[in-house]
Amino acid sequence: MLNIVKQLTPAIGRVKTCCLFRSSLYEGSLTRASSLVFRSKIAICRRQSSSTASTGSEYSNELLLEKRYIPVRTCYDLWYDVPKAGLTFDVEYYDSRPDESIDPGVPLVLALHDSPGSAKDLLPVLHLLARLGYRVIAPNFPGYGKTKWNHWKEWNVFTGAIDEKMHFVFDFQATLNIARVDVLLGHGLGCSTCVALAGTDSKMYRSVALLCPAEHLPLKPSRGRLRFQTAARLSQYWETLQTRPFVWFYMMLMKSSYGYSGYTTKQVIDAARTIAGGRYTALQAFMVRLQVQEHPCRVVYHSVKDSKVPPDVSLKYAELLGIKPEQFVVYQSHRKLSNPGEVTSPKGLQIAHDTPELIEAYSKPIASMVLDLVRTLKPKR
User: How many CA atoms does the CB half-sphere of 60 hold within 13 Å?
Assistant: First the structure.
């Protein structure tokens, strides 16, 4: 694995000149060379909030996080099947200090949600981090939440593959003038993008916190789970116009079997395309690179058999990041089974029982983990 990192290092540069070339990092052929230029004036931010007064727990979670919208142009001059001018999205995002410029003295948390899903799923944790005084920003990826394409012809161009998501996050940051991120927080499939971003430019992203990370391996199909092989076939058929209606009809009938009954058919198809474009070989190399660099990382995962990701996969994920099993604090039925004092340098949380609302149920321990992670960071230069 170290040899893989050495081979990848020349192709991984600073964000100002970096670009993930499919020929060097990913499977497939190079279609168009490009570089990510960190611009400060990609688009004019629409500084107004669309959030309205709400009641109950939703209001308490959104109290310190306002919804904002900003146009972002991304994936420009990238692949042949993408317009040279790129794709423009009206991005919906949460911001704890929307009317303030980026303050280098305030810890900044950038959160990336799961697919399917939205930034709203992370609100229980983000709200607590905002109360701690952190600057919290959480965008919705294209096709999720209210992040929409500006031109109707582009509705199907963005596949959600890991390379496209990286470009999207880079350009979103550039639009908001975010030059440093203290904690890159990921959930589910968003964790893959976090690892790739930090592995590409670990100086911009000072630490990584991963909540229930999705697979880093192309797992075989299993009942009730949307795995790589099934997702790859669906994605291939979706790209063919003649078979696209059949994919839509199939997913409309089967999405509840895959555990996605609360999402639209298009969002589940987008999730399948994201899984198919996971670039798993490169992702593992990025994790090894973070381990070699001793990059601060934290992981929260299920250790039960019926969880979304098998426990052995989660342990391997943590191992590639340099986190050992004995470095986890174990929780079961909301009770801490292991004393933090007994764990040498705790680097994550192991949830030993199945709960569909893990982020909400364990928002306080997760926020505390992020707080400890920020405290371990070296002072900014």
Answer: 6
